[in-house]
Amino acid sequence: MKKTFKIAFIILLCLGTIAISALYISQHTIDVLDPQGMIGQKEKELIITASLLMLIVVIPVFALTWFFAWKYRASREARHDPDWEHNYIAEYCWWGVPIIIIVILGIATWKSSHELNPFKPIENGVKPITIQVVSLDWKWLFIYPEQGIASINFLQFPEKTPINFAITSDAPMNSFWIPKLGGQIYAMPGMRSKLHLIANETGSFRGSSTNISGKGFAGMVFTAKSSTQEEFNQWVALVKQSPKQLTMQEYQNLAKQSENNPVEFFQLQQSDLFDRILMKYMMPSHE
Amino acid sequence: MKASPTTAHETYPDTHHDAYSKTIFGFWIYLMGDLIFFGALFATYTVLNESTFGGPTARELFNLPYTLIQSLVLLFASFMAGLGGTAAHRKEKGRTLLFFSSTFVLGSLFLGMEINEFARLIAAGNRWDQSAFLSSYFTVVATLGVHVIFGLLWVPILLIPVLLEKSLSHVSIRRLTCLKMFWQFVNIIWIFIFSLVYLLGVG
Amino acid sequence: MLGRLTLEAFKHDWIEYLAGISMVLGGLFIVILITYLGRWKWLWKEWITSVDHKKIGIMYLIYSFLMLAKGLVDAAMMRAQQAVAVGESMGYLTSEHYQQIFTAHGVTMIFFVAMGVMFGLINLILPLQIGARDVAFPFLNNLSFWFFASGGMFVIVSLVIGVYSGAGWSGYTPLSGIKYNPGVGVDYWLWSIQISGVGTLLSGINFIVTILKMRCPGMTLMKMPIFVWATFVTMILVVFAFPILNAATAMLFTDRLFDTHIFTAEYGGNPMMYINLFWAWGHPEVYILILPAFGIFSEIVPVFSHKKLFGYTSMVWALVAIAFLSFIVWLHHFFTMGAGPNVNAFFGIMTMVIAVPTGVKIFNWIFTMFRGHLELKTPMYWFLGFIFLFTIGGLSGVLMSIPAADFQVHNSLFLIAHFHNVIIGGVVFGFFAGYTYWFPKFTGFKLNETLGKYAFWCWVIGFLLAFMPLYLLGFMGASRRLDHYDVAEWQPLFLVAGVGTLVILAGVGFQVLQVLVSIKQRKENRDTNGDPWNGRTLEWSTASPPPFYNFAFVPEVHERDAFWVMKHSKIKEKAIRKYEDIHMPKNTAMGFYIGFFSFLFGFGVIWAMYWLVALSFIAMIACVILHLYQKHPDYHVPADEVKMIERKQNP
After folding, report:
1. 20 to 30 A Cα–Cα from A14, which one of C5, C213, C477, C593?
2. Do A253 and A203 fall into the same domain?
């Protein structure tokens, strides 16, 4: 009787934990599992599919382990074959089935690596917007070369519009990530990475860096806002009236170390700022 | 369970479990590890050798005839070591001392030539901190140089006991064999350097 | 004279003072205790200068347990910080301190706990299992331990003098370069890894030669215990992988000290090259950690199932396959660095392929239990816990091996949950299983079962509470290494994780209690015949603890599970055998001295005290020469003495 009570208690505990977790999950946004962008959606599908495929192996492993551990306990005096160590059918099964699963996953890997290649532009008939991203110590600088504006720790773009990110760093390596929209890519000094994302709807999304870059790393949070086209145009017009000018000199100031920077807006005076930052690492400066 | 160790000797899966066999085999494995170490350095050089950051390239800097002479010097140094190893196995004390001493002299000459090469580059303003190419060049070649220094250090350390003992002991033979292998390894690494760095750089 | 070392190096915040002072006091306490008990000579003669693999193994374990304590304190501090540092609150740790803690936590746990306990167990068991009297190079074995200890001291000393690195245990460039981290922290990190890495490499060579050259008569490769196979394959990984780490850190060192531009972003350097080299070592490294654990389970499951291991040959081939594959997957650590779809896909697929031989091993263990006669003692509990946790970790691993999926979880807490899942579920549980299983062999008595089981449940439940929330947090967008965050929703999950950490600490508490209680109860749990579990392999044929020479007579084997066969064979043992002199190596102090001077060497470089560097370098060379010039490095144990020892152990 005590044993049954013990088992019932454990099962109740497990169910309780699952219930609480389910409750928590339903009350909160899980960015990666509730993406608002096409790229993020495809990545989520991949995650779910892969997990389900692997359960084909994981569930039998758990079931067999617990079943055998229970059935063949010494006290149960079950059948004992001390020298049985070989069985072709069994081996074919657990070499064969995982191989098949891996082949399926492998094909999915190949296809998705190409389809979701961060360097691949998104084609949906809408003219893309170019945003240049520079990770600094310890904030994010967003440059809009076509609109002639720039901002710190905030970016806005129209919904349903492909965004072409060009990314670099003027600091140690960081990683540019907006989980609600899609996967990340590293920002590296002297190198130009690319990322292509798109927002399906309007909204405000959290972004951050995932690769440690020094003391103020945890403060490198930014907001990515997806708005309607009109709202975006209005925002650009507003920023263009900003008293702050992003000249080369102002940039040198900005690049100095600072933490937990508030959002700032600039008129972009140095239109090729991004390229200059890159070139700094490629050739000796002749200033 | 049966039989005393002596008769079981023949049934050991590997009968070569004596000290000589183990040491030589262990030293081989160490050399393979060292080879991988150099491999990582070479890989880095291959990635960085075009990054001159606006400065001079390999073609402009390297002096092939000089390097060729260096290579011959090192080749002979290791060849002498090979001869020394054979002499040691034959317990020919005098020859052993002669050959390994030649290795020491030739190896020192090689090292001198290397230092001279570095001094020349540095004097002309091409120090290792001027570009990634120069950094990885100096790193690869200097690492070999450090190996040569150890190889040179090791010669008197091993030859002094040989000088003092009446005839070559097992221990000396074993250690001199390792020294021979080391010098031959250094030579092989230099051949890689000569081909990858100098020949490919200038060619 | 004192280079860069000034009084500033001793200034810390109050938490660091607390840690440093408690360590110094702890060290003083130990020194006073040893003096009080008058045990200095004994310590020096019996342990520090010992070349006996069993003593060296125990020293590895003790050192690793101490480092585990430090690593767990680091973990608790991190959990405490993250439980409170949300929104307006910045927690109780500064960012710099927090970053040093997670860096030290990673280095401590990987290099000085996981590697330490595995190499400790291998040292203890390997020669016994192959019927040998010691490893191939006993002096080198001693030296390897002292290099390992010296490496660990850099982590410890940095708590008192200077600071440790805050760039993460992986030390990515250019953050770890001189431009962004000009202080001594990264240098401490460099030397802790470099010196202990040399020790590991030497051990790798040692164990390979031991396995290939010193097996007893009749023990062909396919008759070796699987633990020996696992060790063999692991050491091949060590010899191939560690030189790469040595090269990467050596070049980072020249970047920092000599201003070379190999991994800098300026002057044409390539920081990505460091990352490639680091992970070319780093991935084999995690297999170096797990394969011995697999070997341990392959020993335990058959013994506690009273059944032969299922599929010995497949198990061997699976080990070989895993080892080979582990060299062609390293890029999966940086899918997000933009290598392009073809390269990413290739490495992703190779990573998944490793799941196949790993799965084969798991099924082979499960089917060893099938139709067995299972004794569910503590080691089997650890095995069952391993199946549960490691499989979940494997699932999350295969998930991350798909590059496009990895883009959303790379460097998030999902990743942290994954690798703790496989390392704790695999390496740590494997060690605990082996520790419990082999404990009686080296102490002469078993560990208390009940406390062992309590510890197990605390570890499993604690692990689930501490790390399952992290999977969720990763999906919610939480990255790793955050000393502070702005999303209030995450806090409850961090609190649950904090509770989990406390439960794990309770588990460790039970394990400490277990040792104390077992010592008290040792008479009841005494191992009287050297074979407390009805074992199958040769180590159980010796007394508990074995005599220093292991075997009076080198065993001769004919089949796998040699000891089991011997126990059940019909062939009568020859009653009278003639004892022979046994050839044994002498103790030596040179390993300790070289290790000690290697610490001074590194310390001197870190603080730019170049006179110290030169002197310790000369001292090391001098020690090597003294060692080489030893007249009589070995001795013979007379046959009569052997006879006496054997008679005493088997009356």
Report:
1. C477
2. yes
Contacts of C266 in chain A (CB under 8 A): 190, 281
Residue A134 belongs to what domain range? 129-279
Residues of B in contact with C555 (CB under 8 A): 1
The chains in contact with chain B, meaning 3 or more Cβ pairs closer than 8 Å, are: A, C
C-alpha C223/C-alpha A220 separation (Å) is 57
A192 within 8 A of A168, measured Cβ to Cβ:
yes
| Whether the Cβ atoms of residue C161 and residue C10 lie closer than 8 Å to each other | yes
Cα separation, A72 vs A75, whole angstroms: 8
What are the residues facing C348 on neighbouring strands?
Answer: none
**Residues β-bridged to residue B51:** none
Q: What angle do CA C3, C9, C12 make, to 5 degrees?
A: 175
ipTM of the complex: 0.95
Nearest CA in chain C to B46: C273
Categorise residue A160: left if φ over 0, alpha if ψ from -120 to 50, beta otherwise.
Answer: left
Residue A133 β-bridge partners = A142, A167
Q: What CATH number does the domain located at B22-202 have?
A: 1.20.120.80
Which chain A residue lies closest to B55 (C-alpha atoms)?
A284
* Domains of chain C, start order: 39-588+633-649 (1.20.210.10)
* pLDDT tens for the 287 residues of chain A, in order: 577 887 888 888 888 888 988 888 888 889 999 999 999 999 999 999 999 999 999 999 999 999 999 999 988 888 899 999 999 999 999 999 999 999 999 999 999 999 999 999 999 999 999 999 999 999 999 999 999 999 999 999 999 999 999 999 999 999 999 999 999 999 999 999 999 999 999 999 999 999 999 999 999 999 999 999 999 999 999 999 999 999 999 999 999 999 999 999 999 999 999 999 999 998 886 54
Location of structure tokens 């010992």? C50
pTM of the model: 0.96
